[in-house]
Design brief:
Elements (H helix, E strand, L loop, with lengths): L2 H17 L37 H7 L5 E4 L6 E4 L8 H11 L7 H12 L5 H5 L3 H12 L4 H18 L8 H10 L3 H18 L1 H10 L9
Antiparallel strand pairs: 1-2
Helix pairs in contact: 3-4, 3-6, 6-7, 6-8, 7-9, 8-10, 9-10
Length: 226
């Protein structure tokens, strides 16, 4: 092959390469940036987001509208807005669902579960509705008290005191299941005062029989009547 033919062939190949369009991959779809307020709206919460694990039971129920109250974001503080009067809401299973939500660590679930539990126990006939649920409710509270996160433990402790104020002596039969976790946390100085006050509240609402139950697990407890 002559040198002139080789030069022509080489030039033709170079032209072919430069003129052929390069294969281009499709541009990735651009997702709209979420608004800060989307975090407060259950309709815009994506429990399957890239940075989330599988949704918890409470998060899934909340996203589907199974919790009949929503967080209202105020300038000073948040509040709940109920879709219907709390007095008309069945405690079973809502009270248990809200108690399960106490173990949440993400907003808005943390606020909704804590505030919803408290407000539901404030209805007029809460005692009659809550007492039959104690065998199912106490293990859920125990799980919150056993949680490694301090804020979850504190929510569980607050909920326990609120429940005790409503059901009174009916809680005594289940109290042993809860005191082990309180005894362990009592060793932590930052919780000592808060737990002591909670135990005093349990005694106040549960009566004299509560003292003996508490002392079985926490011998150092001093009765408010002593």
């Amino acid at each position: 092959m002559s040198s002139s033919i080789r030069i022509k062939l080489k030039t033709a190949i170079q032209k072919s390469k430069t003129s052929s369009p390069l294969p281009c991959s499709p541009e990735p779809a651009i997702k709209p940036q979420p608004k800060p307020s989307d975090k407060l709206n259950p309709k815009t919460i994506d429990p399957f987001g890239d940075h989330s694990r599988a949704p918890s039971a409470f998060a899934a129920i909340y996203a589907k509208g199974g919790v009949p109250c929503r967080l209202i974001h105020g300038a000073v503080k948040h509040r709940l807005q109920w879709e219907c009067l709390p007095e008309t809401v069945p405690f079973d299973p809502l009270l248990i669902t809200l108690a399960e939500g106490l173990r949440e660590t993400k907003h808005p679930y943390t606020f909704v579960s804590k505030e919803g539990f408290k407000e539901l126990l404030m209805v007029e006939d809460a005692t009659e509705k809550a007492v039959p649920l104690l065998p199912r409710l106490v293990p859920v509270l125990k799980a919150a008290l056993a949680h490694s996160a301090d804020e979850v433990f504190e929510r569980g402790l607050d909920a326990l005191v609120q429940l005790s104020a409503v059901v009174g002596t009916s809680l005594n039969d289940h109290l042993k299941l809860l005191l082990t976790n309180l005894s362990r946390r009592l060793m932590d100085k930052k919780f000592k005062e808060k737990i002591t006050v909670a135990l005093q509240k349990l005694e106040q609402y549960g009566g004299k029989a509560t003292v003996a139950i508490i002392k079985l697990k926490i011998p150092t407890y001093c009765s408010i009547s002593s």
